[in-house]
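Hey, resending since the last one bounced:
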Amino acid sequence: MDRQDPHGTARFLTRLQRRGRGGRLKMLAASGAAAFGLTAALATPLSPAPQQAQAADDGKKTLTVAVAQSVDSLSPFLATRLVSTSVHRLMYEYLTNYDPKDNHAIPGLATDWKPSSDKLTWTYTIRSNSKWSDGKKVTAEDAAWTFNKMMTDDGAATANGSFVGNFEKVTAPSPTKLVIELKKPQATMAALDVPIVPKHEWESVEDFSKFNNDKKFPIVGNGPYVVTDYKADSYVRLKPNKSFWRGAPKFDELVFKYYKDGDAAVAALKKGEVSFVQGLTPAQAAALEGQSDIKVNDAPGRRFYSIATNPGARSKDGEKFGNGHPSLLDQKVRKALFLGVDRKTIVDKVFQGHAVEGKGYIPPRFTSYYWEPSDSQEWAYDPKAAGRLLDEAGYKKNGDGKRVGKDGKPLNYRMLCHATDPNDAAVGKYLKEWWGELGIGLKLNCLDNVTDPWLAGEYDLAFDGWSVNPDPDFVLSIHTCDALPATPKDTGATDNFICDKKYDQLYAKQLAEYDEAKRATLVKQMESRLYDTGYMSVMAYPNAVEAYRTDQIKSITTMPEKAGNIYGQDGYWSWWSATPADSDDSSGSSSSTGVVIGIVAAVVVLGAAGAFFAVRRRSTAEDRE
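The structure tokens again:
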């Protein structure tokens, strides 16, 4: 996933990052129909403002993408938000890439790869025609140095440490040969979503936990684009890498522009000030349908939108912390809550049909790993059954119709929600009504920054969500005991402090299973186990609802090629392939559901809110890929 995650889309500005070995900062994917719900007006004006009129004056063709999430870090060792990882896919190459047609692994920086007979040693051939944007050759030593730094430096392992946790040794016997030795077989070796950085630029960094790679421009990379400028909470500007081995992008600039308000972003699209907008609400999408020179793309999404419980925050050393409601330690109570959620109503009324009703953990877009509970296993909407479970758990109604425990205290919960995501508030109103009928009180705690209370375990329930990659290992790993923080002061990779030994055993088996069918079976068993424990409940799989100007973009690649999304892909295909509307060049894969690329400056308008050195772990529901 690029992990990640729009609640994975913007839980925002936090205190100085707490770090834990091998932990990935997680971003709670912001709920909502889109990858990042666009929310209040443009936080910081872009200077110079990338506008279509400006592009026309100087002849520069700029692709401007309006995003609803700010960059958490330009360091690939720290970033977890979808907007940030999307930028990194443009800046740096990974060993492998995903084919935009069907998501299978294809060559990236590595031209081929093969395991030893015991699958404990993997050898990658590094392409000889890749150069860093400063002219130096890319070699296997750059890749070896990147992985070794993650293996030996806790700060460097913040975002992607789970990929190297099983690595025993990484070497570069020659400029074009990379060798990775494993402790035990690992099925994700063709899907290592780790940006490879230039050793000569990064080896002087002293503290990887604080270095955000945002002071020196242009930033040296080897991807299709080079970052030339950045302003926190405002934009990221990129230019084409003319020496990119696959060919340079066709736009003169790419800009990711941060809008805190979704309506403001839509207005900018109508005016031609931006080329593309993602994370549209149903009302926004409906308003854009039929508009001249604007195309709406409504594609099956790659994320889930869920409710997470706080089952008792704890660290690996066994110390408990936070103030989660003790009743949520009881599986009967958790099940009762989820039996009281009408998922069909959420899909019909909140997402207005731009979503699929939630079942298992992995979205149906990924057919190999998609799982649904059986009729007898499913926790379908059943308020009467929910009431019986609460009675059995010892929380019966008093004379006022309120559920109370043996201590006589009413059963009331606090629920974290994203102030920038209208879907959280809308779903929250329904939950108040449904759970209120069960005798349970609910208070929504809607914040711009949900990170601090989340990390501290100071919540009862929360809106959650992640974007899922073609290989689901990362989103599976965030529910393991190993993902817990080492101590209460550390930041682990855990999503919501789940630690279940049976789940962990299944996770270890699937990670070592190379047979695709057998591995898929194990993953589905994990989903079944996660479902039965009731620590979280998937309410919906939101569509990727986005729009772009056809008078600025001639063609653009969706992923997957058929009925796919443009923004937040598992690769750089959309922005690399985008062709200006006035161009004669229509080469490169493209789709009618293309991306909107503004003919302005390619600036990714994203930024960290406040002190940028503080890595934010939680975002909105689609932050993490």
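Residues 305-542 form a domain with the Dipeptide-binding Protein; domain 3 fold (CATH 3.10.105.10).

Sorry for the duplicate.
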